[in-house]
């Protein structure tokens, strides 16, 4: 086990990828399959990061980042996931279960911090309203950069605090993990795959003919899985 | 001083048809990536739209800081809501309307009218179509054994080809058509594209989920059949969850119980 995490690097990565979720540039660097893999790469185990990323991506399938809706912030949370599982290794019994728990909890808190950020931006916008209404370029440009900076700080603080909280918890949990390693991983994967199945159905059932495409794909996928 | 556009009501442009220098176009295109940086419950995307149009407004009579510039910037920085990628259409069209000297009241009505279509089309095309499609393709690649670099390049490369192309198209079509841009939003690929994408993504989902499940199980593959049955049953239940009980909440709860069970098992065994 490598209990020491490169906190500064992971925090920086969490801040940058947290920004991507909404503020800049929305290139989907913040998707779990990317962010967790990069988090794992930072601690030297991109393959474990990819495992965490792929399983979290299954959960994130149902998250549509539509306008003002509230949803988990996956960017920073996935960096935390990649950092944790990369440090302890995916082979540790319970590592995937605890990592997923830590990441989803961080994403949940991250969603709350996004709401607070939007509120803070609204306060700044209200304060700058007279200048904006007067067509002041410094007010308009300043508000954009202030929002960007605040989001960066939000992502950094969230990542750092989550790592500080979940790293010792993960160490303690894995030290006394009692369940069978094979079943541990199976339970974690089954949970996220179930969520993904439900999400896929909800996402596509409204499109004419999509359910038949889904069934056809499922037949192909199950066949490929059996042959693999 | 009164800006010329406000002096006389008219339906034709007050200024000569403008051209957009490449440098200004690039500045606007780059700023589009930051359009949501100050997203808030007061103005939503509004300030971002003003921020993106600002380089073009410097070309108004009087230049930066002139009356026309300040009036236009104030107008363009008010409440606005749209999908962040398709907001490029609004940015291009509104920049042209301002530089052509259209009446402020017309611009404001046009601006308001753009919100709905640019939001709903973008949500269906990108958030409910292109993003899940690319995400599922990456999961399928993962399930087929691809490594971290391949999965990341495939996902980011494919997604961002669509992402950047959509923003570039939006800015270009908005600028080209100005206040007549509505017709461009009725283009077949925007009208029919989301449904085609959804069907393709549905098929891909069927392929990707079992493959990703199989690889993620790792040493648990010996119990693959049982896991597939459990996922099928739990997935059917998850599909019937009420909207407020999203899947991630359920996953968090089940994982918490599982972790507690495992820790209890250790304690009992000792």
Kindly describe this structure.
The complex is a heterodimer of chains A (228) and B (270). Chain A has 8 helices and no strands. Chain A has helices at residues 7-22, 32-42, 46-60, 74-88, 95-133, 137-175, 181-204, 210-227. In chain A, α2 runs antiparallel to α3 (46-60), α3 packs antiparallel against α4 and α5 runs antiparallel to α6 (137-175). Chain A starts with 6 loop residues before the first helix and ends with a helix. The mean pLDDT of chain A is 95. Chain B has 11 helices and no strands. Chain B has a domain at 4-116. Chain B has helices spanning 4-7, 22-32, 46-57, 67-76, 87-100, 104-143, 148-177, 188-191, 193-217, 224-239, 247-269. Mean pLDDT of chain B is 92; it is low at 1-12. Chain B has 270 residues and is mainly alpha-helical. The chains are: A mainly alpha (228), B mainly alpha (270). Chains A and B meet through α2, α3, α5, α6 and α7 of A and α3, α4, α6, α7 and α9 of B.
β-strand amount of chain B: under 5%
Overall shape of chain A: it is: globular
Average pLDDT metric of chain B = 92
Low-confidence stretches of chain A: none
Strand proportion of chain A: under 5%
How many E-type strands of chain B? 0
Note the total helix count of chain B: 11
Helices and strands of chain B: which structural class?
mainly alpha
Kindly state the percentage of residues in helix of chain B: over 70%
Query: Biggest interface, which chains?
Result: A-B, 115 and 112 residues
User: Main beta sheet of chain B, described?
Assistant: none
Shape type of chain B = elongated
In N-to-C order, the SSE pattern of chain A is HHHHHHHH
Distance between the termini of chain A: 31 Å
What is the oligomer described by this structure?
heterodimer
């Amino acid at each position: 086990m490598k209990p020491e995490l490169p906190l500064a690097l992971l925090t920086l990565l969490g801040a940058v990828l947290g920004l991507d979720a909404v503020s800049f540039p929305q290139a989907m660097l913040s998707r779990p399959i990317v962010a967790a893999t990069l988090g794992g790469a930072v601690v030297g185990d991109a393959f474990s990061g990819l495992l965490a990323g792929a399983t979290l991506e299954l959960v994130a399938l149902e998250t549509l980042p539509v306008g003002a809706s509230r949803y988990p912030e996956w960017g920073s949370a996935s960096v935390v996931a990649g950092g944790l599982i990369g440090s302890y290794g995916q082979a540790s019994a319970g590592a995937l279960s605890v990592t997923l728990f830590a990441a989803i909890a961080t994403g949940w808190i991250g969603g709350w911090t996004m709401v607070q950020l939007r509120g803070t931006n609204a306060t700044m916008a209200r304060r700058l309203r007279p200048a904006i209404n007067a067509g002041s370029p410094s007010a308009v440009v300043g508000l954009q950069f202030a929002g960007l900076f605040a989001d960066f700080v939000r992502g950094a603080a969230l990542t750092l605090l989550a790592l500080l909280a979940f790293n010792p918890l993960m160490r303690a949990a894995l030290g006394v993990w009692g369940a069978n390693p094979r079943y541990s991983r199976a339970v974690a994967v089954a949970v996220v795959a179930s969520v993904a199945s439900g999400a896929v159905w909800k996402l596509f059932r409204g499109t004419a003919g999509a359910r038949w495409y889904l069934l056809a794909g499922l037949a192909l996928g199950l066949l490929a899985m059996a042959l693999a | 001083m009164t800006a010329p556009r406000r002096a006389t009501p008219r339906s034709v442009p007050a200024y000569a048809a403008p051209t957009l220098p490449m440098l200004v176009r690039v500045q606007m295109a780059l700023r589009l990536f930051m359009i949501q940086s100050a997203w808030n419950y007061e103005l939503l995307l509004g300030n971002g739209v003003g921020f993106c149009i600002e380089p073009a407004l410097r070309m108004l009579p009087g230049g930066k800081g002139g009356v026309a510039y300040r009036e236009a910037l104030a107008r363009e920085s008010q409440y606005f809501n749209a999908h962040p990628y398709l907001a490029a259409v609004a940015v291009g069209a509104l920049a042209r309307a301002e530089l052509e000297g259209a009446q402020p009241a017309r611009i404001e009505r046009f601006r308001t009218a753009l919100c709905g279509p640019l939001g709903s089309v973008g949500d269906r095309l990108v958030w409910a179509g292109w993003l899940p499609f690319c995400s599922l393709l990456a999961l399928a690649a993962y399930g087929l054994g691809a490594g971290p670099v391949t999965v990341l390049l495939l996902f980011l490369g494919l997604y961002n080809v669509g992402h950047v192309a959509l923003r570039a198209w939006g800015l270009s079509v908005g600028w080209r058509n100005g206040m007549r841009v509505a017709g461009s939003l009725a283009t077949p690929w925007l009208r029919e594209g989301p449904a085609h994408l959804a069907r393709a993504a549905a098929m891909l989902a069927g392929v990707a989920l079992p493959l990703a499940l199989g690889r993620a199980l790792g040493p648990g593959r010996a119990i693959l059949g049982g896991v597939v049955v459990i996922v099928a049953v739990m997935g059917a239940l998850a599909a019937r969850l009420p909207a407020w009980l999203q899947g991630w909440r359920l996953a968090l709860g089940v994982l918490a119980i599982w972790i507690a069970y495992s820790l209890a098992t250790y304690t009992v065994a000792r």
